[in-house]
Amino acid sequence: MINCNIPFLVASITLLPLLGGCEVIPVTAKVGDSRLDQLVSSMDQTLANQATVNTQLQEQRRQLELQQQHLVLMSQDIDEAFKGFVEENCPRAEACPAPLKSSGKMRVGALETIWLPDLDLALIARIDTGAKTSSIDASNIELFERDGKRWVRFEILDPISDELVSLERRLKRTVGIVQSGTQESKRRPVVKMSVLIGDLEQIAEFSLNSGSHRSYQALIGRSILKDVMIVDVSRKNIAPYIRSQTSSASKDNTQ
Questions:
Q1: In order along the chain (255 residues), what is the average pLDDT of each group of 10 residues?
Q2: CA angle, 113 as apex, 138 and 200 as ends, to 5°?
Q3: How many other C-beta atoms can be found within 10 angstroms of the C-beta atom of residue 66?
Q4: How many CA atoms lie within 13 A of 132 on its CB side?
């Protein structure tokens, strides 16, 4: 006789492992919740740290703005004090001060504005004790003869109007100039012209340079400086030219 309880017993034995597996699910959920809580806590701490840093940066910025305002006020006070000191203790400068002189010689700087009466032009000139002959930038240089004598026709750029000014002068001689970085010598015509530096006017020889001195149009050499001027290379524009009503230096300039 077959026992009818055997199938029920087999079914019960089969369901036991399945029922045991269902009890693990709550444990896994708790582990996941714990990690999520740690992550949220870490993010909260990071945000709190960032908020602290932002607060510190804002405070530092505010302190810097206050210091900048304080420096501006101090600078204004210093400017006012210095201005008052200068007005009380320093005499007003003359519009055209007389050139400085030392031991009877006029003092000039490394750069000076000179006046050329023959051209009615003011040019910036470099004062160079290393050059013997003075030179001036010229263009359209042309040699020709007049009454059996050699002459030179050339043009000088007016730095104010940006126009060319023409001039003709007797050719006195030519000089050989060795170009920098080469061994070749180039001949330049030499003419005589009047030049006014400070309150000293004289007739001097100028070689005509077809190139450019860049920031200056003329170079004053030892032939002009000798015995009458001292060069202070640390200064500029200390001997402004002073034009007189009459010009004696331009007499016989074409001879």
A1: 49 49 50 77 87 87 82 78 60 57 84 94 94 93 95 94 94 81 78 94 93 81 92 92 65 50
A2: 105
A3: 10
A4: 4
Q: How far apart are CA 230 and CA 233, in angstroms?
A: 10
* C-alpha 132, offset from chain centre: 31
- Picking from 135, 99, 108, the residue whose alpha carbon sits closest to that of residue 229 is 108
* DSSP annotation of 201: E
How far, in Å, CA of 107 to CA of 229, rounded?
Answer: 6
User: Can you say how many angstroms the Cα of residue 62 is from the centroid of all Cα atoms in its chain?
Assistant: 34
Structure tokens at 64: 């810097």
Total length of the chain: 255
Residue 21 φ then ψ, to 5°? -65, -30
Residues 109, 235 contacting (CB under 8 angstroms): yes
- Report the predicted TM-score, pTM, of the whole model to 2 decimal places: 0.57
Strands 139-146 and 149-157: antiparallel
Tell the residue number behind the tokens 């003329």, with chain if given.
Answer: 218
Cα–Cα distance for residue pair 190/198, rounded to 1 Å: 24
Query: For residue 173, what are the contacts with CB-CB under 8 A and spacing of at least 6?
Result: 190
DSSP-based three-state secondary structure for 20: helix
* Rounded Cα gap, residues 109 and 249, in angstroms: 23
